[in-house]
Fold this protein.
Amino acid sequence: MAESYAPTPRTRVTREPERAVYDRAAAYQILDEGFICHVGFVMDNQPFVIPTGYGRSGDNLYIHGSAASRMLRNLDQGIAVCVTVTLLDGLVLARSIFNHSMNYRSVVVLGTAVAVEDPTEKLQALRALSDHILTWAGVVPLQMVAGSPLNDPKLDPKTPVPSYVRSYSRTAGAKSG
């Protein structure tokens, strides 16, 4: 299997294409680091995007769900699917909100899903799913934690980091209602 993916007109990044990477190892690293994928598909002219757990084994990406779910009932019917995993690495703040951005890594997988019917592969898929997360009973709380802010290189080094940036937390930054 090739180490890099050759982009096609359908898969080529068009906005800031120099930031795109078509490397298999980089894609696998993102898939292996993430926990939630978003599965997009169209059914009866209605688009759906469903967050779900997943696991990877080699070149196979297994998504988790109930056989009774709309998603799994329809994905093995040969419809096109888009699976996306995104990892947020940082908030990029600018003097103008127009120039605010985010640093992130993502993988977008386009294709057609197939049901796993073979009992041996089903067991392999179950192992990939459970090993990707953890195998224990209970809850491991997770939270997004902000790191130390880094000045823009163009910023005057004498400019202090504002307190609202130094003390930023997702909980405090979230708006209610």
Remarks:
- The two ends are 50 Å apart (CA to CA).
- DSSP finds five helices and five strands in the chain.
- The longest helix spans residues 119-132.
